[in-house]
Design a protein that fits this description.
The complex is a heterodimer of chains A (157) and B (908). Chain A is mainly beta. Chain A is 13% helix and 41% strand. A five-stranded mixed beta sheet of chain A has the order 8-1-2-10-9. Chain B is built from 29 helices and 40 strands. In chain B, strands 31, 32, 33, 34, 35, 36 and 37 form a seven-stranded mixed beta sheet that branches. Chain B has a six-stranded mixed beta sheet with strand order 16-24-25-19-18-17. In chain B, a hairpin with a 5-residue loop joins β1 and β2. Classes of the chains: A mainly beta (157), B alpha+beta (908).
Chain lengths: 157, 908
């Protein structure tokens, strides 16, 4: 059984392995970076460290949203931090980025427990734009959770 | 064997061995040049360096490394003992050996597979010639820690040398854990200790000594050291820090006997003939020591000193220093935030100001101090060059003298590391291409030995490294030809390029002017890598050259990577930082002056500043932000719809209802930060200028690294993140073409000169005359040959053309009203004047073949006037001016005649 952090983009519920997440905060004073790719929202100051914030909605093909009351940042662990908590049997795909990066999401949901062996491939009616970024769906007590392929989200062109 | 030993021990060994090799290189060069008398210290130093490498290699069971260093050590021993003379061949062999040792150290685990037969053969040949019996061994008897009798194989020549120096031979056992690790020293340090006591003949982990399985599993392995020393047994033990029982002297009497006996033996490890008794160590000890009494003291004193050792330096892991540096940076940021946060309340708390001052000072000093720990003298890179130059000079048959200045200049460690390759390339290039062969140099009256100067110094917050040679210089013609041939520039472009631009083509990827690609340099991948490496460090590289005289390559580097003073500017409501090192000055152009001072060249805006022409970049535009200005009343940033800074029309600017005129409102002034990029400069237009602050540069993450306009980000005192601008990136983003601008500027300057020349000749001597009533003309005196008066009645018409009989010829006449928009001369006049211009006919001054009819001649004047363009249409009109209150039309008679086709007219 693994734990997943869930969050909303628009009205869709997504999930990320809790192990990948360093913290969740509302540091929303984001400095934009001119000429950066459209899904790069900007940089924030996380207690003296600079974190790059990606607009996850934009990355998945949605329209950029104004920062609202429920907006949160999901800050990911760096690869170095992940390596420190690596478990037995963790595969190659278990990695994030060298530098500190975070996702801007519209709202945070609960932490949900689910059996990772029951992950199914994403359904056929998912949009093209999104499809590449999803790694599967998983049934939870709270409903169907769409899981993200972190490597694709972070690094694919 | 080596799997038992710790990785860290091996890496320490490699590091120390490299240090040894680097340390003796200058000595070897001195040896080569020294010729005659070489100091004993120097020879000893060199010998001991190789000796310790041999010891460590043996101990760690790197056989190839051990054999090679052993054979080199033997050679050096002979040199040290005066038995072998230094000559170029020997030095060549030694340098070759050094290189091979380095190669082995570079891949230590695979060192046994690295071939060194050539080098070994050379040394063996030298040794044979010197009568040295390499590889011969003798057996010595002694006891191990348990008291058991053991036999050891010793290198015969080593024993010979030790005996010659009056040493006794010992066997010592040191346990890895209890004698070495637990005492807080590394095995190599221990070995070095042993070397300070005498000479190490062999050192290895003796598996035979492993008494039981237990100690093997515990990894308390015994290291056996066989060494020679003039010390007594107990003193030697003390010097090594070992319990007395672990050091025993070998059977010297038997050994000496064996040495005499096996004198003629071939170089094979032959079991020595049986040795008798050998328990009598006493008398042998006596005889060995008495003559050496004095020496013993000297040595024990040395050993004692060696034991204390107190070093001035400490080995620290680089990542630890990097961590410290980051922490120091954080501390600086937090201090900035603290100062800002309490700035308003300092007075409320008594004594707070002093405390803050103290914290601030300590923080700054701490940061500076930590920065210093990472600073390395650039000499560490420079030191390898004498050797490289020596090798290249020999290989190419050239003579090159290298002078190094400023080796003590310090740079951050990471910069020093990244500089190694570019500098090496430049030096090699120099030796290979720039410096001519000695004969060639003599022909042009240069010193046959090429002079190469490597000079590092501080200047204006940067470190400059200049590499100057007095070679043949870079020939722009050759460079251009090669560049065109390689397709780097097109023919058409080539014509437009300045000499400076041509020379800078050597930095283009794929460029090389080498006639043949030697394996030294000239593969065409060099200079562009030099440039990109330098720019990666935040620096610039420039070239100055003069054909036949020499070349200078200049590398400019920032002093430190992490904390830099920067100017904070504002544009579009956002703030950005510009590193101080890029900023030349700040120019404030008042609204009223904008139209005058800012011009357009090729459609781009430029500012004329003193004698320079600066391309201007609006930061808002480059960053893709809307241009704004601050409304004076509301303070709100409003978008600026004006296209052009100098475009000020009354309608848009004036706002009489509000009583403010945007043209002169101070908010419409422009703040320009002048940046420099190498030898170019340009101006950046910003909205606001804030303070100069020290900021901590935080690198950009991989996700935003592609944004070339920025070189990093930082956190301000108020906690906000701002981007740090990169001058080079900005210029590229704004498509600044300094070359075009230079060309334009050149043209402009020439135009200026021309106009000045023309203005100087504005002094004209003219004849003022009239045509119709009230119409005045001025004709340059130097174009007039004759002024004649004629009777109107004598004018005849041929066809429609008027003629007059002049000196037997018919002279065609020009009535001005018929060729230009002027009124006709009064036909009622009885007499008129004819102006006959001067022409050159076959190089001789002659009369023109036509005359201009005028009514009267008024005056001859010397005037200096500016001619205004006229609306009057017609040929030969230069312009008009007011002369003596009359509007006068200035004519150019020759032009007039030409236009009418009357120049070459033949009169029938």
């Amino acid at each position: 059984m693994s734990q997943y952090a869930t969050f909303l983009l628009g009205d869709r519920l997504f999930g990320l392995d809790l192990m990948m997440i360093r913290e969740i905060n509302r540091i929303l004073d984001i400095t934009p970076v001119p000429h950066a790719k459209p899904h790069i929202r900007g940089l924030i100051n996380l207690r003296g460290q600079i974190v790059t914030i990606l607009d996850l909605g934009v990355r998945l093909g949605l329209e950029p949203q104004a920062i609202a009351e429920d907006s949160h940042n999901l800050i990911l662990k760096t690869n170095a931090e992940l390596a420190a908590v690596r478990r037995e049997g963790d595969g190659q795909g278990y990695s994030t980025a060298t530098d500190l990066v975070g996702f801007l999401v519209d709202a945070i949901g609960d932490v949900v427990e689910a059996d990772e062996t029951t992950i199914e491939p994403p359904s056929a009616n998912v949009s093209e734009a999104e499809g590449g970024f999803l790694s599967g769906v998983i049934k939870t007590d709270a409903g169907l959770l769409v899981l993200l392929d972190l490597h694709e989200v972070l690094f694919s062109e | 064997m080596t799997s038992i030993v710790d990785e860290s021990i091996i890496s320490d060994f490699v590091a120390e061995s490299r240090d040894h090799l680097n340390a003796i290189e200058p000595d070897l060069l001195t040896m080569e040049q020294g010729g005659g008398d070489l100091s004993k210290d120097l020879l000893n130093r060199v010998f001991r360096a190789i000796h310790s490498i041999k010891g460590g290699a043996g101990f760690l069971a790197f056989e190839s490394l051990k054999s090679l260093s052993h054979v080199m050590e033997s050679v050096l021993m002979l040199v040290r003992d005066g038995k072998l003379k230094v000559d170029p061949d020997l030095m060549d062999a030694i340098f070759a050996g050094m290189d091979r040792l380095r190669a082995m150290l570079d891949d230590i685990q695979a060192s046994d597979r690295i071939p060194c037969d050539q080098e070994m053969a050379r040394f063996k040949a030298i040794l044979e010639d010197a009568g040295h019996d390499q590889g011969a061994q003798v057996k010595a008897r002694g006891r191990d820690t348990e008291g058991r009798k053991r036999e050891f194989d010793l290198d015969r020549e080593g024993v010979k040398s030790a005996l010659a120096h009056g040493m006794n031979l010992f066997h010592a056992t040191a346990f890895l854990r209890r004698d070495i690790k637990e005492k807080g020293i590394t095995p190599l340090a221990f070995l070095n200790n042993a070397l300070s006591v005498g000479e190490c003949l062999d050192a290895y982990i003796d598996l035979a000594e492993v008494a039981d399985l237990e100690s093997c599993l515990e990894q308390d392995l015994p290291v056996t050291i066989l060494f020679g020393s003039v010390l007594e047994c107990d003193l030697a033990a003390m010097a090594l820090g070992l319990p007395e029982g672990q050091v025993t002297m070998l059977d010297m009497k038997a050994l000496r006997r064996q040495m005499k006996q096996t004198a003629a033996q071939p170089a094979k490890p032959v079991p020595a003939p049986a040795i008798e008794a050998a328990e009598e160590l006493g008398p042998a000890q006596e005889t060995g020591e008495s003559p050496e009494g004095q020496v013993r003291e000297g040595n024990s004193a040395r050993a004692a000193k060696g034991g204390e050792g107190g070093s001035e330096t400490l080995r620290v892991r680089v990542d630890l220093l990097t961590d410290l540096m980051n922490q120091a940076g954080e501390l600086v940021l937090s201090r900035n935030q603290l100062l800002r946060a309490v700035s308003g309340h300092v007075r409320d708390i008594p004594g707070l100001a002093a405390i803050l001052q103290n914290i601030s000072q300590v923080t700054s000093e701490l940061q500076e101090g930590i920065m210093q720990t990472r600073m390395q003298p650039i000499g560490t890179v420079f030191n390898r060059f004498p050797r490289i130059i020596r090798d290249m000079a020999r290989q190419l048959g050239k003579q090159i003298e290298l002078e190094i200045k400023g080796a003590e200049v310090e740079l951050d460690k990471s910069i020093v590391e990244l500089l190694t390759d570019p500098l090496t390339h430049i030096i090699r290039n120099c030796a290979d291409h720039a410096i001519e062969m000695p004969d060639e140099r003599r022909k042009v009256k240069k010193n046959p030995s090429g002079q190469l100067l490597l000079h590092a110094y501080h200047q204006g917050g940067q470190v400059i490294i200049a590499i100057t040679d007095d070679g043949r210089g870079i020939d722009p013609k050759k460079v251009l030809a090669k560049a065109v041939a390689k397709g780097i520039v097109k023919e058409a472009q080539a014509k437009e390029m300045t000499e400076r631009e041509i020379v800078n083509l050597v930095f283009a990827p794929g460029f090389s002017t080498a006639e043949t690609v030697t394996d030294i340099s000239g593969r065409g991948v060099g200079m562009d890598v030099v440039r990109s490496n330098t720019e990666k460090l935040g620096g610039h590289v420039e070239l100055e050259t003069q054909v036949g005289v020499g070349t200078t390559v200049l590398l400019r580097l920032p002093l430190t990577l992490a904390i830099i003073p920067s100017m904070i500017v504002g544009v579009g409501g956002n703030r950005f930082a510009i590193p101080q090192v890029n900023v030349v000055e700040f120019v404030w152009v008042r609204a009223a002056d904008v139209a005058r001072r800012i011009e357009r060249v090729h459609g781009a805006e430029v500012l004329r500043l003193r004698s320079r022409i600066l391309p201007l970049v609006r930061l808002a535009d480059v960053l893709g932000m809307p241009r704004t200005f601050q409304d004076r009343n509301s303070g709100v940033r409003v978008q600026d719809r004006r296209q052009d800074m100098a475009d000020r029309r009354g309608g848009e600017g004036a706002d009489p209802a509000r009583g403010l005129d945007r043209r002169t409102d101070w908010r419409s002034d422009y703040n320009i930060v002048v940046l420099k990029l190498g030898s170019n400069q340009f101006g950046v237009v910003v909205d606001e200028l804030f303070d100069i602050e020290e900021i901590v540069v935080k690198p950009l993450s991989e996700f935003v690294q592609a944004c070339k306009s920025f070189s990093g980000a930082t956190i301000m005192g108020d906690g906000r993140v701002i981007m740090i601008l990169d001058a080079g990136g900005l210029a590229t983003q704004a498509h600044l073409h300094f070359a075009d601008l230079m060309a334009e500027e050149k043209l402009r300057v020439e135009e200026e000169k021309r106009r000045a020349a023309l203005a100087a000749s504005k002094r004209r001597s003219v004849i003022v005359c009239t045509g119709a009533q009230g119409e005045y003309f001025a004709i340059p005196q130097d174009q007039i040959m004759r002024l004649e008066k004629i009777r109107t009645a004598d004018i005849q018409l041929v066809g429609e053309r008027p003629f007059v009989d002049y000196r037997g010829h018919g002279l065609p006449l020009i009535h001005l009203d018929q060729v230009m928009e002027v009124k006709p001369v009064d036909p009622g006049l009885k007499e008129v004047f004819v102006v006959i211009p001067k022409v050159m006919e076959h190089g001789v001054v002659a009369l023109a073949k036509a005359g201009i009819v005028i009514s009267d001649i008024i005056d001859a004047l010397d005037v200096e006037v500016e001619l205004e363009p006229v609306k009057v249409k017609g040929p030969g009109i230069l312009g008009s001016a007011i002369l003596q209150h009359n509007l006068t039309l200035f004519l150019e008679p020759l032009e007039l005649l030409r236009a009418l086709g009357l120049m070459g007219l033949v009169i029938a």
